[in-house]
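Quick note —
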Amino acid sequence: MRSDARESAFKIIFAELFNGNCNDRFKAAVYKNANLSEEERAFAMRLVSLVEENREALSELMSEKVERFTEYRIYPVDRAILFVALAEIKYCPDVPPVVSVNEAVGLARKFSTENSAGFVNGVLAGVINA
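Predicted structure written out below.
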């Protein structure tokens, strides 16, 4: 399932918020722990690569859609979720944006605070409805 691939990509992006780019060994361990198929692993790698290559543009987009907060004030878990979802929405035309939003909200419910699902949904809705 792509949900597991998204979760793996989120974990890597979250780690990169604190450590810079993660090495291939770390990424491989995350993929292995998630027990991803080759297709899922390729999708996760694609998402991670898209975030790494387009981080500046994604940061700008995030900042445009988040009122009253600069990016660094966004809870890191939410920021990592938004990076993955925004990369998917902007650069993966094969994935319907509503699926990306739904998956991101699910990650927020699983890994973040009580209010994060609504926050993530609102930011992403602002992007896809713009």
